[in-house]
Amino acid sequence: MTIRRILHYPDPRLRRQANPVPEVTDDIRRLVDDMAETMYDAPGIGLAAIQVNEPWRLIVIDISQTRDRLQVFINPEILSREGEQELEEGCLSVPGIYEPVARAHSIRARALNRDGQAFEIEAEHLLASCIQHEIDHLDGKVFVDYLSRLKQSRIRKKLEKQQQLAM
Amino acid sequence: MKQAPQAAKRAGTRINPRALAAQVVDEVVVRARYLDAALTETLAALPRAQARDAALVQEMSYGTLRWFDQLAAIAALFLDKPLKTKDQDVYALLLVGLYQLRYMRVARHAAVKETVEATAALKKPWAKNLLNACLRASLREEARAQAAITASPEAAFSHPAWLLEEIKHHWPGNWAAILVANNERPPLALRVNRLHQSRDQYLARLAQAGIAASVHACSETAVVLDTPVAVSELPGFAEGDVSVQDAAAQLAATLLDAQPGERVLDACAAPGGKTGHLLEHSALAELVALDREPARVKLIEENLTRLGLSAKTVIGDAANPAPWWDGRPFDRILADAPCSATGVIRRHPDIKIRRRPEDLPRLVATQERILDGLWPLLKPGGKLLYATCSILPVENENQMAAFRRRHPDAAEDVLPMSAGRARAMGRQILPGEAGMDGFYYARLRKN
Q1: Is B261 inside any structural domain?
Q2: Domain annotation covers residue B7
Q3: A117, B168, B188, B416: which could join B175 in a potential S-S bond, CB 3.0 to 4.6 Å?
């Protein structure tokens, strides 16, 4: 288990399209474990592989308060969406920024688990937003893309400044 | 994704369940408290919003104590030196962490992180690095930990050496099965109150409530659930339609075989499980329920109130009847004597920690005094049923043999019972046998 470095917005590598996982191998499972550890350490409630610079369609989520309900989604797909909600979101790749984002209130999704077995899940509220947020990452999208241009440029400047200071 | 700070803050006021489990374990190990008492007290302090965590705290407390000796053996590999006496709570937390990694289906990273963070709740932030290092090392060096466990029977079976030797000595052909059964999670067994409904009727009510269960073959009143549920979910529990009681304990009423109109004494009656059963079983002329401790006599009364039954409760010592006995003899006496409780370790894993070898002579002496004290209270021709939840002969068949040597007017009355195995006197059910708790029964007839 290793804690991976998380890419920070506006890193262009966050814009890549992730590849489907052809087979759930031990290497993929190791990546899952690393991602889970990285997410718990951050701490966050969801992490997409692309955020640790691994261009695979793979996300890990744990929205439980007990931090013991890890959910792994390999090659996730959203089958249906219903309703609308606006939750305040943040992102491990966009530290310190929290903004409301409108998304579907409930969704049905399909994916493979850590053992490579297919499953379907119905999610709503926080879990629904979280799955949609992470799948966006796999398509090169970040939640700030939903904000106004003005807000986007402010956030970009703020983070670029922080990153320069950190160097 | 990261949760917005307001939402995270709302969630952040919760008490770390790992810290709570560590406190419970510490109370049992350091202060020799009863696990169920320590757990009830701790859970009572849990905020309402956190009620969901109660099951987690319970699972971690019971599990850590169930595997205490094994987890301690793993901890010893990765701790440079033992923790100080005042830091035993940190040690308990380490064991709680190891328990999760070895026995719970939680994400390992989350288990490590949450356990390490619980040091803050214990107000021992300095222990953060120590716990982190030990827990991670145990993951990295799993093979070494496994080798250490395999090399030591104490660690492999998770029993203290003296108790392991004691069981091995007395049960040379069964000791390993006993030790394994002691570490298993016990089933939830119920006693159906047949004054309210038949066992089949209650099974149907359970099925209707979506609770899968089956009858227990050894008892006419016992039902065993496939998966334990909270007592509050049992249909008709508050109305006294059913009680929680292991099938082995339910044999007592049948074996005492009190007849309608008889006068019966339930000595050492608290908390009243068997008292209730005796009243459900037959229409007695009078049942006297005796216990030494006023607080525990109250438990008997509460239990009987729930069942809608009544007995004459008496505070007194079975070993010394003069102050409380009215001189009228009893037709039947149930002597469910205090014992080592070595038959019910699967229900009370703290017994492995609290019980010391030096307790045994004291318990045997108490049982002897109780039996001698009760014998004169029995009518000629009357019967006394001796029961323990022990599997140690010194408390069971040896105790009975010694009693008969002291009392020539006592004859063994063969028990109409097929469960368990015959001993020199009486019958022994071993833990896990037919899914039951470990119990011993013997019946004496007064000539």
Answers
A1: yes
A2: no
A3: B168
